[in-house]
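Researcher: Last one for today. Full complex below.
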Amino acid sequence: MEIPYNVEVREDTGVYNSKLGIWLFLASEVMLFGGLFSAFILLRTGAPVWPPIGVNGSILPLLEHTIPHATFNTIVLIASSVTMVMAWVALKTKDLGKFKIYLGSTILCAIIFLVVKYFEYTHKIHEGFVPAHDTFMAIYFTITGLHGLHIIGGIIVLAYFFGPGIKMWDTEPERFTNRIEIVGLYWHFVDLVWIFLFPSLYLLN
Amino acid sequence: MSDSHHQESFWRKYIFSTDHKIIGIQYGITALLFMFLGFTLMMVMRWQLAFPDQAVPVIGGLIKWLAELNGFASDGNLPADLYNVFGAMHGTIMIFLGVVPLVVGAFGNYIVPLQIGAPDMAFPKLNMSSYWVYFIGGVIMFASFFLPGGAANSGWTSYPPLADIATTGQTYWLVGMVFLITSSLLGSVNIIVTIVQLRAEGLTWMRLPFFVWSQLVTSFLLLLAFPPLEAAGIFQLMDRVFGTSFFLPSGLVVGGEALNVSGGGSPLLWQHLFWFLAHPEVYVLILPGMGVVGEILANNTRKPLYGYKSLVYSAIFLGFMSFVVWAHHMFLTGMGQGMSVFFQTTTMIISVPSVIILSCFMLSLWGGSIRFNSPMLFALGWIPMFGIGGLTGLPLGLSTPDIHLHDTYYVIGHFHYVVAPGTIFAIFAGIYYWFPKMTGKKLDETLGKLHFYSSFIFMNGIFMPMFIQGMAGVSRRLADGGQAYAHAQDVLVYNEVMSWSAWLLAVAQIPFIINIFRTMMAEREASPDPNPWQATTIEWTDTTSPPLGHGNFEKAPVVHRGPYEYSVPEAKSDYSPQTQS
Amino acid sequence: MSAKDVAHHVITYRNVFILLLICTGLTVGAAYVDFNVPKSMAGALFVGLTIAIFKGYLVAGNFMHLKTEKKIIHYILFLTVFFLFVLLAVPVLWHIDLVK
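Model: Here's the assembly. Have a good evening.
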């Protein structure tokens, strides 16, 4: 016996295996970021001033200064989500050339996001706003750092499908399309998290 | 499948195998070894509790070596600092490296695909990686014993601020936990997808064996409760490595000096995130045990499980409720009245499905022609043990009596009754029951009975006196067993009783170990009976013993009836297999 | 998937993209607006998070195809969101209820 429903859909559940698997994984991710957000809310409601004032004063002026960068990053990430879903559409229409363009742009957007993030981090650290400075900086670096790790993970997987993984298209095109749908779901989720991080950490202080 | 019977290298076949049966056995052996280690720690601690500051016999030299390696003074006795290390690691090893990998990793992996008629788990490679991630996590935990300052020493709960400023062992603990959590997440995704997607034709939800249901609920608990602890672990790592103050309040003074941190954090934040996992974790430990016991009861009473549907709905409700009771571990943290009323109400509610499950099991016995073989004895022993564990939990779940009992030996007695004679008896029952399936050879009954009766006596010898000590007010954290504690003087005598019981419990495991090795080495019959217990579920009726290497089944099973059709009137035999049309 | 389906999909994705960009603009704009009432922070929080939830709905519903996804996925997510709510709300309520 071979493992069934790897590609085809099981009739009574209406999904194939990895579709269910990725959604379960995302459910656990929801709870992971939920835990981080819960801590954020608890620290925030417990603090007399937010962001707290530490030895280097308040982060607030610097933070307002970085709003344009963060806005730019938001747009980049949303765009990468759109190109991701377009890459899947391209596979559905059996257009491998278009698929490569869209997937490549997604990876490019992700890298741009990280570069901007890098300058943002180094600027803050340079000004003395390290994670240990106050609880806002702590939660800021933890959540955005973990989100950044998710981006890096995403880039690795996407790059795999852009490079060696694409061979599967010749042998099992349907399975490959499913895989792109799965990694797409993950990628949109990373985008979704950022949509909540952006106002919580940058705007509403 | 027969065409996939090509020759595989030893490494592919036994070490980096993607076959769920091999992975299940890997989990089982690793977890049993870890459990033995965790139990050894406890045996040394019990020496210190019974005979404080005297040199440990037999392994005193080893203790001295370890203590001096960690930087503690020792003459072969167990110094208080090392006692703390052992206490924290005993809990961690038993729960995260022992019981969970056994009930979910070993039993879940081996039995679930067979019971639902699937060729393997849904994601075999993921399955393999979850075992290896678990293994790495275990190695990290184990390695931390040899660090200066020893392994983690802030209790298995790792409460900050203490854990934030503890020695390096705590950092290893956190990193190890991240690996263990990741492994659990991968495993639970795999089990859920397998159960939902790979059920055999005709195996509808209400035809699933109770064991499969228990695994499904357990996996959901792991999936949704573990991530908040992962978040908390990351916070604590940040606190320890980057000097943040997630769990450190302002103005903290350590050893007479103000701590050089920004402050502004909350130690209670850790407790929330920790218990958000750790309460569901209790049900992760016990639910699969219930599943195992259910299977064995039905098989050995030769009648259907009483109230199958109530059992299933109770298990689901239990899983659901376990997410909204966590703060009953925190009644003494200055909780307001509104919240304490809420959490003690939910705690009382969650006891209802547990009682339903226990009642169904007892009613299943009524009117059955019971076979008293070793798996059945352990299953029968499980019922009162879990009952005692559950009922002694009620006073702890009410905020008023909890004021008196909190952090005493009563608490230790309560949860050990649930997990030690509870879950571990279920594990033994499961090993005796499914061993013929895994190897094609039955374990010896006489040795099995010896194992059961002696374990049963000594388990109670360890844990029953804890209730007495606890009600007298002996704290669970005393490294001298209460010698220097005025209120404990009348109940000190029990320390020796408990310690001797613990060591004799170890002796009681010898028949089990002999039994396993003797049976393993015995010659297997040419064609072993695939169904020695005359069971109805698919793993017994449609596979060989042991099942085929790849794909499990010759042809996909088709299910026609419920899981426990024993003694059906006018049937040919007293059991009607699920796949019998 | 037919050509018509694809064209339809692509139009939807384009519209969602534009809507997301507008919302991002709104949310940044709203943060700069001085609400000129004593509890201005609460107002900004409400507006900001409402927009974020709407954006999240757009992404999950369209890009992640939740609008047309199977029931079993919805059940899992309902369960998750319920526990997420417990995780977010209860510690905060508990915090407020602390004995001072």
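Chain B is about 65% helix and 0% strand. Confidence is low (pLDDT under 50) at residues 1-5 of chain B.
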